Amino acid sequence: MMFRRTAKAAPDLPPLGAQRTGWLLAVAASALLPHADHLPGWLGAVTLLLFTWRLAQWKRGWPGASGWIRTLLIVAGCAGISLTFGRLFGREPGVALLALLLVLKLHELKSVRDGHTVVLLGYFMLLAAFTYSQTPAMAALLFAAMGVITAALIALTGPPAAPLALLRQSGWMLAQALPFMLVLFVLFPRVPGPLWGLPLDAHGARTGLSDSMEPGSISQLSQSGEIAFRARFDREAPPARDLYWRGPVLTEFDGRTWRQGTAARRTGGTPPHPVAGPRSGYEVTLEAHGKNWLFALETVAALPAGARVSDDWQVLSGDVVRNRRRDRFESVLAARPGIEEWSAHIDAARRLPRDGNPRARALAAELRRQSGSDAATVDALLRRFRREAFVYTLTPPLLPGADGIDAFLFDTRRGFCEHYAGAFVFLARAAGLPARVVTGYQGGERNSVDSFIVVRQSDAHAWAEVWLPAEGWRRVDPTAAILPSRVERGLADLAAGEPVPFVARADLGWLRTLRHRWEAANNAWNQWVLSYDQQRQRELLSRLGMAQPDWQTMTAWMAALCGLMAGALTLWALRRAPGRDALARAWAGLDRALAPAGLGRAAWEGPLDYAERVAAARPDLAADLRAACTLYADARYGGAPLAPAAREIRARSRALRCHRTLHHR
Amino acid sequence: MRDALRRWLASLGGSPALPLTLDRRRIFVLPSAVGLVWGGALIAMLLTAINYTLSLGFALVFMLAGLGQVALLHTFRNLLGLTLKELPPEPVFAGQPARFALALDNASSRARPALRLAMAGSDEALDIDLTADAALTFHLRVPAPRRGWIAPGRLTLSTRYPLGLIRAWSYGQPQQRCLVYPQPESDRPPLPPGDAGTLGLRARGDGSEEFAALRAHRAADSPRHVAWKAWARSPDAPLLTKQFDGQDGGELWLDLERLPATMPLEQRLARLTGWVLDAETAGLRYGLALPGQRIAPDRGPAHRARVLAALALFGLPS
Questions:
Q1: Is the Cα dihedral B64, B66, B71, B74 positive or negative?
Q2: How close A190 comes to chain B (CA, Å)?
Q3: Mean pLDDT of the A179-202 span
Q4: Which residue on chain B is closest to A175 by alpha carbon?
Q5: Do residues A142 and A134 lie in contact, with contact meaning Cβ atoms separated by under 8 Å?
Q6: What pLDDT is stored for residue B218 in this prediction?
Q7: Closest to B105 (Cβ–Cβ): which among A192, A196, A643?
Q8: In angstroms, how far is CA A222 from the centroid of its own chain?
Q9: Where would I find the beta strands (DSSP E) of A414-540?
Q10: Cβ contact (<8 Å) for A582 and B113?
Q11: Residue closest to A190 by CA, chosen among A92, A317, A323, A328
Q12: What's B16-45 look like in SS3?
C-alpha cells in the first residue's frame, strides 16, 4: 500500500516501467505470431530482428533504436511493402504495414499513452488475422492472445503485480464479457458485406470449376480434397449416382476448348421452362470460389431469392461468391426439361468447327446411318464407348492441339471425364444431334456424423446433354459407360497405381470415421459460427420464437438482454452494500458468537451498555467483550479507522466463541 | 459554468461533506480519453468485420465491447464503499502550503489500486494504492499565500482501474479550514526593549530568577517550574507553579499601534508574527495588543497559537 505525489499537470503521461514494457513486448509477440506465415519473408525477418533488438534492450539493457533509425526504417519499410505488393492499401499491405508500425512502436515507448497505442494495434492485428483463417484452432489461439493483450491493458493502469495475477484478472474479466459477446453475436443485426469495394486481394485464389474446359482442366481439380460445398436434404438423400450438381454449361467449341454459349448469358429469376415431377428440397452451403455460379441438382425447380437461372439451366448468384453462402433449392431429379427449347439454343448446340477431327466425323456419320433415329444414335455412341478399350485415368497422355478428339478416340483412348464428355458431344453433333457439355460435380460423400453430403473438388465432373425432340434434354454420362462405379462411389475404384486423392480412398475405415467427425465439427462451426449471417440469424431467431426478426426487434432484444446482464453483473458487484462494511460484518459476527448462549445484544442497546450488561452476568467474558465493544464504538462513532477495528473485533469474537463453548461444557 | 456543473454533480448523492462513504449515487462514470479512442477503434473494427464478413471478427469486436461494459463496472466498484475522512489541519505560516490531512479507509476485502485524489486549488494529486481492509492517512498541500482562513477545495477521488477505459470519480468536501498565520518578516529588527506595559517591556531583562510566589499550575507551564517539593508533601493537592520575578527574561507587550503607522498593515503584522516567534524562542512572556483586542502576557504553545491566530485573523471577516 502506498501513495505517490504527482503533479496534476501531466496526469496521462507517467513513464512506463520495466514491467509494463515487458507486457507490451508480450502484446506484440502474441499479435504478430498469428501473422508469421503470411507476412512477406523480408518483412518477417525485419520484424523478428526489431522485436529481438527491443527484447535485448529490455532484458540486457542494449541501446535502443534512435529517432533517425526509426524514421529510416519506416520509410524503407513502406517502400518495401509497396514494392512487394504493388500498392499500400488493401488487406495484405495493410497487415504488413500494421506489423511494421507495431514493432517500431515498441522502440518508442515513453509513456502509458504509447502503451495504449500498442494495445490497440495488437487488437487490430488479431482482427486482421481472422481475415486469413477462422478455424476453431485459430479462434482459440487468438482469444488466448486477447487474454494477454487485456492483461497488458490492466498492467498499464494498475500497480505492479505478478504476471499470473494479471492474466487471471484479464481472464476473469473476459469471462464476464463472454455473455455480452454471445448476445451481441446472436442479436446484432447482420448487414451483408461488403460495405465498400473490396480490394482484389480480399480473398485468396480459389480452386474450382472454370467457365471453360479443355483436356486436363478437371483432372487437375480431381487431385484436390478441398470441400466445394455441402448439402443437406430435407428427407433422405438420393443415391450418389443421381446427384449431378450442375455447373457451367459449355456449348461453344473451337476444336480444343469448350466455352459457354449465348444460352448461358440469358438469365431469369425462374426456370426457363416449367419442371414437373416430385421435388427434393435441400440446402447447399457453398464454399467461396470466386465465381458467380451456384450448384444445384439437375433439374432445378425452385430458386432462392436473388438467384437466377440461365436458359441452359445453370444457377447463378447475383454477385461473385466471395464468402461461404447457404442457399435452398428444390430440384426434380428425373426431369427432362426443354421440350419446347428455343431454336437458337438448339442451333448453337449443333455447331461444330468447319474442319478438324475427320475420323471422328466419319465415325459419327457411320453410326448415324446405322441407327436411324436420334435416340438410337445416342445408344450407339454410348455402346461404342463401352465396347472399345477406353481407360479412365487421372493421368491421361497429352493430346495434340489439332485433331485432339481424333487422337483421343482412336489412338490414346485414355482420358478423364472431360475427354469423354467432350468427345461424346463432338460425336453427337457430328451425327446431327444438338448436344452440349455440362460441367459440375457428381456424387458426394455422406458424412455419417451430421448427415451432410460433402462434395469435394475431387468430385468435379463433366458430362453431356443431348436434345431429343420428343423428350427435351437428356443427360448422357459417357464416363458412367466406361466406369460405372465412378458415379456410384466416386474415384475410389480407379485402377491400381492411379494417384487417387487421399480423401477419395475407400480403404482405411477408421480414418474415414475420424475424418467424418472432424469434418462434421468443422461443418457445425462453419454453419453456426462462420456463416452466421442475416439469413441464418433470421432463421435462428424465428426458431427461438421471435415473431418478426427485423432489425428493430433484434436491437430491442439486444438492448434488453445487455441491460439485463449488466444489471445482473452490477448486482453481483454490489452484493456487499456499502452499509455492511467490514466493521458491520465483524459486529454482526460478534453477535452470532454470543447469541447462542443467550447473550445476544438487544436492538435498543448501545455497544457499551451491552458490554457492561454481559460483563456483569459473565465476568469470564468481560475482558474480550469490553474490548470488542469499545473498538466498535470508537470506530463507528469516534472516527477510528474501521478496518483494523474490524480485524480486532473478529479476533475477539473468535476468542469469545471458544470461551462460551468451553464454559458450556 | 464547469464549476457549477461539478457543484451540482457533487450534490447529487446528498451533501458531499466529509466524512463520506462513497455509495453508488455519488460515483460517476464516463469513458476516459483512452476509452473514447477504444470506442472509435471498435467501430473501425466492426466495419472491417462487416466488410470482410468475418464472423470471428464480429465475435472479437463484441468481446471487446463486452469488456468495455465489464470495465465500467469494475472501475465503478473500485471506488464503491471507500470512506473519506478528514483530520483537523495544522495551522501554517503564509507562504508555506496549507496541509489538509485526510484518511481513506477501505473496509472491504478487495484491494483498491490506482486511486487518484486531487483537491481543487492544489496543483498536485496523490496516486494511491489501497490494499484490502486498510486505511491510509495523508495530506494534500494547497498553496497559502495570504494569512487568514483557507478553506479546503473540493476533493475529487477518481480511478481508471482496471482497464483505463473508464474514469469513475466522486466528490467530497472537507469541512475544516486551515488557519494561515502571517508570514514572519524575514529581516526583522530584534525584539524591542520593554517599557512598562507598552510596546515592548522587558522587566529586568537579564533573567535573574527571584522566587516571587506560587500560583495554580497551567498546562502551558514548564515542568521545571512546578513546585515539586510542595506536591511531594501533599500529593492530593493541585500542582503549583513557582513564579519568578523577571522569569526567563520578563514580560513583553507586542502592540500593533506602536509600530510606525506608515508601515503597511501586513508588514506590521508580519513583524509582530516574527517577534512572537522570537519571544517564544527567548522564553519571554509576551502579550498582544491589537486595536480592540488584548491578550495578556503569557507563553507556551497554547498562548503562541492564540496570539498567532489573532494576528492571522486581524481585520478579516470571520
A1: negative
A2: 8
A3: 75
A4: B67
A5: no
A6: 63
A7: A643
A8: 24
A9: 414-415, 435-442, 445-446, 453-456, 460-468, 472-476
A10: no
A11: A323
A12: CECCEECCHHHCEEEECHHHHHHHHHHHHH
Nearest chain A CA: its distance from B10 CA (Å): 19
Pairing between strand B285-290 and B251-255?
Answer: parallel
What CA–CA distance (Å, rounded) separates A354 from A254? 9
The three grid cell numbers given for residue A557, joined into one nine-digit string: 432484444
The grid coordinates listed for A124 are 487490430
Nearest to B259 by CA among B220, B290, B230: B290
The closest alpha carbon to A36, from A53, A48, A52, belongs to: A48
Which chain B positions have a beta carbon within 8 Å of A529's beta carbon? 55-56, 59
B66 with A178: Cβ contact below 8 A: yes
DSSP state of B185: P
| CA pseudo-torsion sign A295, A299, A305, A306 | positive
User: pLDDT of B267-314, one tens digit each?
Assistant: 889 988 998 888 888 888 888 888 888 888 888 889 999 999 999 998
Chain B residues lying within 8 Å of A138, measured CB to CB = 56
Q: Where are the domains of chain B?
A: 1-178, 246-313
Q: How many CB atoms lie within 10 A of CB A598?
A: 7
Once rounded to an integer, what is the mean pLDDT over residues A296-313? 88
Q: Which region among A159-163, A276-280, A388-392, A484-488 has the lowest average model confidence (pLDDT)?
A: A484-488
Residue of chain B whose Cα is closest to the Cα of A324:
B53
Ranges A382-396, A563-577, B85-99, B241-255, most confident: B85-99
Residues of chain A with C-beta less than 8 angstroms from the C-beta of B50: 191, 193-195
Q: Which residue of A has its CA nearest to B160?
A: A157
pLDDT of residue A491 exceeding 80, the answer is no
| Domain ranges (residues) in chain A | 18-187, 212-353+433-504, 582-664
Residue B60, Cα to own-chain centre: how many angstroms?
Answer: 50
Alpha carbon distance B219, B214 (integer Å): 15
Q: What is the pLDDT of residues A416-461, one digit of tens each?
A: 888 889 999 999 999 889 999 999 998 888 888 888 888 888 888 8
Phi, psi angles (nearest 5°) of residue B68: -60, -45
Complex confidence, ipTM: 0.77
Say what the pTM is: 0.69
CA-based nearest residue in chain B for residue A131: B54
Which member of B21, B125, B128 has the closest CB to residue A8?
Answer: B125
Sorted by sequence, the CB contacts under 8 Å of residue A327 that are 6+ apart come out as A283, A284, A286, A294, A296, A304, A307, A317
**Residue A326 distance to chain B (closest CA, Å):** 14
Does residue A516 carry a catalytic annotation?
no
